[in-house]
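Translate sequence into structure tokens.
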Amino acid sequence: MSGGTKPIIVGISGASGAVLGVRLLDVLAGLGIESHLVMTRSAQVTLAHETDLKVADVHARASVVHSVDNIGAAISSGSFPTAGMIVAPCSIRSLSEIATGVTSNLLTRAADVVLKERRRLVLLVRETPLHLGHLRSMTQATEMGAIVMPPVPGFYVRPESVDDIVDHTIGRALDLFGIDAGIFRRWTGARMPSPGRD
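Result follows.
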């Protein structure tokens, strides 16, 4: 599965949904794929509100951890080979910085590098409702080559828990890298009703 797979950068911003980034790190580790983690300070605050995990617990799940202030990190350069980056979750602030190319920290700088190197960038934008500025930022990021993938549940798989919803989202995000994580049930087609009287 992971033979020849380059490292994947995992960005965790301060939007709600810290569990998405945490689960992504766990799945990548299980697949033997090297992960490079960068968390914003807001992400650390969100993590404390939404989970019982400590920042150290999240760091322990990553292959390599980079400080959000370390603009000299390996992932800030296009010469460092990666398969791309997933920002899970992606805040509107991070989206806006990526869309404009005006970056203020390592997370958005790394995303900018991924775009300039024409690598895969997947943004799990976590916000609702959306105003026109948000939508324009999504359009601009898409025009630059990013994939905007809000974590929208697939109810056709009949999720029974939050974990099911998270796994569906993370599995679909990894699909965009050609990685089948095997963590969610796929749609195989609708079943036609049995013949009978109207």
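Note: The chain has a mean pLDDT of 95.
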